[in-house]
Write a structure and sequence with these properties.
Elements (H helix, E strand, L loop, with lengths): L1 H17 L1
């Protein structure tokens, strides 16, 4: 659960920051 949430938050977070 923790790993899934961490990735789910990290993926969109990086996408917004990258763009």
């Amino acid at each position: 659960m923790t790993t899934g949430t961490s990735i789910a938050v990290l993926v969109p977070n990086t996408d917004q920051r990258g763009h």
